[in-house]
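It would be a great kindness if you could assist me with a short task in structural biology. The full record is reproduced below for your convenience:
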Amino acid sequence: MKRGGSNILLIEAIIMTAVLSAALSICLTVFTSASSMRREADELSRASSLAFSAAQCYVATGDEAAVSTMMGGDGGDICIDGVVLSFERDGSELIITASKDGRVIMTQRAVQGVKP
């Protein structure tokens, strides 16, 4: 009789260990994806802020080389905190592309005299 009771206790312990292991696996997956999403949100926020600042500089100056210099560059593309801002003129517009590791994060258009 005692032997049957200890078998049930052992089976219950094994089942509870399996359930807790499954719950732990799910929680770790959720935390990992949340961390990845946080990193991506930080990149987007940083890129958005830098592109908006560059657009405001272009509105004020009207010259992409001046924008690069004002943002700490040498008159061409600039890299700030791993985010590369590149500038391309399209008529009266300046297209500012923010990228990281060769992946475009966002694009901002600016027209001289028109607030972004």
Remarks:
- The chain has one domain: 2-111.
- The first strand starts at residue 78 and ends at 80.
